[in-house]
Specification:
CATH topology of the largest domain: Nucleotidyltransferase, domain 5
Number of domains: 5
Radius of gyration: 40 Å
Oligomer: single chain
CATH class of the largest domain: Alpha Beta
Number of helices: 18
Helix content: 25-40%
């Protein structure tokens, strides 16, 4: 009976428990000498401790603690499973006779590890095998460099490569996401690791992936790994560089390299160590050594040698010997070098230019020593222009004189002469006269400006200003109008 005068059956019915449970609790109370009066002044925890104080029988035994960080790290090693780790944990606990604690059973061991892992960040909770994968992507948020001459900002790309098991990270800025830049960044990333994983997993990059594999598509968890890796790079690298100005790609990459070291040595919040220590202990031992020779991506293209003894590659111009004018050659380019081959022999080698389109890279040894050895001397170019009119000749003459070497203006002159052939001598000479009338004596009107005059019909406007024939520019390779009045043919 209780203090309220109710029977054990009535107590069981009111609490929705069995009569046996009520009997058991009353028996425990008598064994602990616990009366209603004493229990009324105690907390629930104190009452429970008094009733269940038979350690090992009525009270849960103290269990051997699990080193979840160790379990998580070991699972990344090849062939290691939770079953194996539990067996090692169980063996260590049962052979320690000094400790009265008992190990967890396997099912409880797995449940506790799963609960612990769920509290980690998305990238940390994934279990990638050591040395198996490196994930690659570009940041949506882009850094920029500033042209020191014009002050114009130019956006560049941030390449990020993250190892799956250790989260060890490489990052660098590149000009584009094109194939050459992508391959170059991948090579430098592997050199930063000084080892190679089994698989490289790029995001959906046009430079790396033409389409998803129908039979072996990338898993969704792989995308989370690389996306979080990019997010971390944005926070710990780009955000810290936001108030700094860089005038070259190399200058920007030096700053990124410094912050990258800080990122890889920053301690983990939920695990022991840092990215670098995890890489050294987990990933590096399982990765493959790099090959002895560095891979170089080469582009090959058949090109013709123009009359300015330059060939065009990627919108930039590179010189070869003037003796090859009119010949077909092969340009072979890497990210740093452009080589020119003729009949399987290398005839020129230049550092690759990334300047503005039309930039000329010229070797002095490729220039003709004297004009008589040149098939197209500057005088011949001006003479050809004079057949369309005196104003056309002046435009070509100024175009040649503006260059350090007049041959460098041949392409621009050929463009002007093609426009003259298209529209005829009378219209072209009138358009050049109009362009010269509004230009300075040292300035050569651009072909596009002359084309605009022709396109709008301004050369036929009777109100146009008469051309002002200015004194010809002086240049060692341009002989002036008197020379061409002799009507001699120059060979």
């Amino acid at each position: 009976m209780s203090d309220a005068g109710r029977s054990q059956r009535q107590i069981a019915a009111s609490l929705a428990i069995s009569v046996g449970t009520v009997v058991g609790y009353l028996k425990r109370a008598r064994g602990a000498a616990l009366t209603w009066e004493l229990a009324a002044g105690m907390t629930a925890e104190a009452v429970e401790a008094a009733l269940f104080r038979d350690v090992g029988r009525n009270e849960p035994a103290v269990r051997v603690a699990i080193d979840f960080g160790h379990v998580h790290r070991e699972l990344r090693r090849a062939g290691v499973t939770l079953q194996l780790l539990w067996e090692e944990y169980h063996l260590a606990a049962t052979t320690n006779r000094e400790s009265p604690s008992l190990p967890y059973r396997y099912s409880h061991f797995c449940e506790l590890y799963g609960a612990w892992r769920s509290k980690l960040s998305p990238t940390m909770r994934q279990v990638h095998r050591a040395g198996e994968k490196a994930f690659i992507d570009y940041s949506g948020k882009k850094p920029h460099i500033v042209d020191s001459h014009t002050g114009v900002k130019q956006e560049v790309e941030l390449f990020v490569m993250v190892l799956g098991a250790s989260n060890y990270t490489f990052a660098e800025a590149t000009r584009t996401q094109k194939l050459a830049d992508f391959v170059g960044s991948t090579i430098r990333g592997l050199e930063y690791f000084d080892a190679a994983p089994e698989v490289l997993v790029p995001d959906q990059l046009r430079s790396a992936v033409r389409g998803p594999d129908r039979y072996d598509p990338r898993k969704p968890r792989d995308k989370a790994k690389v996306e979080v890796g990019v997010l971390i790079a944005q926070r710990w690298i780009l955000a810290r560089l936001r108030n700094r100005t860089f005038f070259s790609l190399s200058e920007l990459n030096e700053a990124i390299a410094e912050l990258l070291e800080d990122l890889n040595t920053r301690p983990f919040k939920k695990l022991e160590g840092c990215r670098r220590s995890a890489f050294e202990s987990i990933d590096r031992p399982a990765m493959r050594p790099l090959p002895p020779h560095r891979y170089q991506l080469r582009e090959r293209r058949k090109v013709g040698v123009n009359i300015d003894y330059h060939v065009e590659f990627d919108f930039r111009l590179y010189s070869v010997s003037y003796k090859l004018i009119g010949q077909k050659v092969e340009a072979r380019a890497t990210a740093t070098v452009v080589e020119i081959f003729h009949n399987d022999g290398r005839v020129a080698s230049h550092a690759r230019s990334y300047g503005r389109r039309g930039t000329m890279v010229t070797c002095e040894d490729h220039r003709p020593v004297q004009h008589q050895h040149q098939k197209w001397p500057p005088e011949r170019m001006v003479e050809w222009a004079s057949t369309f009119g005196p104003s056309v000749a002046i435009v070509v003459e100024r175009t040649l004189a503006q260059r350090v070497h007049p041959e460098q203006g041949y392409r621009a002159c050929l463009g002007i002469l093609r426009v003259a052939e298209k529209h005829g001598a009378e219209r072209m000479d009138a358009a050049c006269a109009r362009a010269l009338a509004v230009s300075t004596a040292s300035h050569a009107p651009h072909r596009k400006y002359i084309e605009s005059i022709l396109r709008q019909g301004l050369d036929r406007d009777p109100r146009r200003a008469p051309a002002t024939r200015t004194a010809p520019l002086e240049h060692d390779n341009v002989r002036g109008g008197d020379y061409y009045d002799r009507k001699e043919t120059v060979h």
